[in-house]
Specification:
transmembrane; Cytochrome p450; globular; three-stranded antiparallel sheet; 10% strand; single chain; 12 strands; 52% helix; alpha+beta; (+)-abscisic acid 8'-hydroxylase; Cyt_P450_CS; (+)-abscisic acid 8'-hydroxylase activity
């Protein structure tokens, strides 16, 4: 998905002609035939996409882009707001495109999003491009519906309920304090990589519990490789990011298998999501048993989902607070009041403290709207579906555009203004979906907000920060501040 690096031109390359090639020149005729066939395939594909289907309905308007590539490069290298809004202005609230090798229909209407994700979700199965399913694992909960999905969702939700994650507050606080301690001796910080460290540690805590197995060592580097492949073009060729990711996934799967085996041998299933999944298999009343492969796929998927998106959201949170000094001052004042109460009572931060952070919570809500980390989600039509007078053919991907809905002035006046006060009143139904909607909404949303609140509490009462990098946004695939938001931090006592 990332463009190839540009060729560097130096005086040497200009002054001296290249040496003669050791290879004979390619015959012209095969090249002509190759390009003729390429044009023919392109023409046939465009005809198949643009032809009017049988019956009274036609395909939505839009562009399918180049063969195979479609509009993938445009989506992942442009400002997503521009990509979606330009097509919405040209084609309307429903339009076709071609992303990651799949024909797609994008929708930017809350009514249509509700239809796809909630009221008629049985007609739109959860799916991702095949390449992404391969990397995460085909048995992960994200890709299923029906009894298997319901069983898994119930187990996963039980590990992320408020009553469960309350007990993680001291451990999350320890992770924050350990991270911020390293900042005291390194006043120039690259925010996104630091937030990835933090979010990864919290994800590991929630999945494996407080006592980590020795086999878990090295898992972070495998996830980093997995992430690069997930966000790349799905070319399974030697040395490509996707190929490396598939190899890393195999190693990761084997590590998890050994952890599961060791816990079984000890007869101790442990804490966290892994413990919950293993305990469910031993419960006598449970009809559905999970294989080790199914457990591993879901562990890989949950860590992946909890890691990158949360880190990106916290990075944007720091950017928005920095750019709005009056909000930073107000949030700091709210957190200082809680800190004073803690110090008077000689205690650490508690779950109840986080529930009293009303302004900070609204700032986080606005961050999730403005950043819209997940621009869309994937569904697949299980049969031909009519929508707004258009046909969505069976097998086509359907993408509700959360970002477009979040930036609609109809639902969020002055959408480009960062304004947490808008959340003093609850948004209209189906207009605010930072964690998705329906049966496949993110089960870890409360944990994500909890780790953001605890981090903001200690950051604002310990440091002040100044953004040192250039303004701008990078895309790949999540939009993030340029260069991961480099900042210079100052301990409060020095300010």
């Amino acid at each position: 998905m990332l463009p190839s690096p540009a060729t560097v031109v130096t005086p040497a390359t200009i002054s001296h002609p290249p040496p003669p090639s050791p290879w004979p020149p390619l015959p012209i005729f095969p090249l002509v035939v190759f390009f003729f066939l390429l044009m023919l395939v392109n023409n046939l594909l465009r005809r198949s996409y643009h032809r009017k289907p049988p019956g009274k309905f036609r395909l939505p308007p839009g562009s399918m882009g180049w063969p195979y590539i479609g509009e993938t490069l445009k989506l992942y290298t442009e400002n997503p707001n521009s990509f979606f809004s330009n097509r919405e202005k040209r084609y309307g609230k429903i339009f076709k495109t071609h992303i990651l090798g799949c024909p797609c229909v994008m929708i930017s209407s809350p009514k249509l999003a509700k239809r796809v994700l909630v009221t008629e979700s049985h007609m739109f199965k959860p799916t991702y491009p095949v390449s992404k399913e391969k990397i995460i694992g085909p048995e992960a909960v994200f890709f299923h519906q029906g009894p298997y999905h319901s069983h898994l969702k119930k187990l996963i939700q039980s590990s992320f309920l408020p009553s469960t994650i309350k007990g993680l507050v001291p451990d999350i606080e320890d992770i924050v304090l350990t991270l911020l301690t390293t900042w005291e001796h390194n006043n120039t910080i690259s925010t996104l990589p630091e937030m990835k460290k933090y979010a990864f540690e919290v994800a590991m805590l929630s999945v494996f519990g407080k006592k980590l197995d020795s086999e878990i060592e090295g898992i972070k580097s495998l996830y980093q490789c997995l992430e690069k492949g997930y966000n790349s073009m799905p070319l399974d060729l030697p040395a490509t990011p996707f190929n490396k990711a598939m190899k890393a996934r195999k190693c990761l799967h084997e590590k998890l298998r050994r952890v599961i085996e060791k816990r079984k041998e000890r007869g101790e299933f442990g804490e966290g999501l892994l413990g919950a999944l293993m305990v469910s298999n031993e419960a006598g009343k449970m009809k559905m048993k999970l294989s080790e492969s199914q457990i591993a796929d879901n562990i890989i998927g949950v860590i992946f989902a909890a890691h990158d998106t949360t880190a990106t959201a916290i990075t944007w949170l720091l950017k928005y607070l920095h750019d709005n000094p009056h909000l930073l001052h107000a949030v700091t004042r709210e957190q200082e009041e809680i800190r004073c109460k803690r110090l008077e009572a000689k205690r650490r931060i508690t779950w109840d403290d986080t529930r009293s952070m009303l302004l900070t919570t609204r700032v986080i809500q606005e961050t999730l709207r403005a950043a819209s980390i997940l621009s869309f989600t994937y569904r697949e039509a299980v049969e031909d579906v009519e929508m707004e007078g258009y046909l969505i053919p069976k097998g086509w991907k359907v993408l509700p555009l959360f970002r477009s809905i979040h930036y609609s002035s109809q639902f969020f006046p002055h959408p480009h203004k960062f304004d947490p006060s808008r959340f003093k009143v609850a948004p209209q139904p189906n207009t605010y979906m930072p964690f998705g909607s329906g049966a496949h909404a993110c089960p870890g949303s409360e944990l994500a907000k909890l780790e953001m609140l605890i981090f903001v509490h200690h950051l604002t009462t310990t440091f002040r920060w100044e953004v040192t990098g250039e303004e701008g946004i990078q895309y790949g695939p999540f939009p993030v501040p340029r260069d991961g938001l480099p900042i210079k931090v100052y301990p409060v006592k020095e300010v």
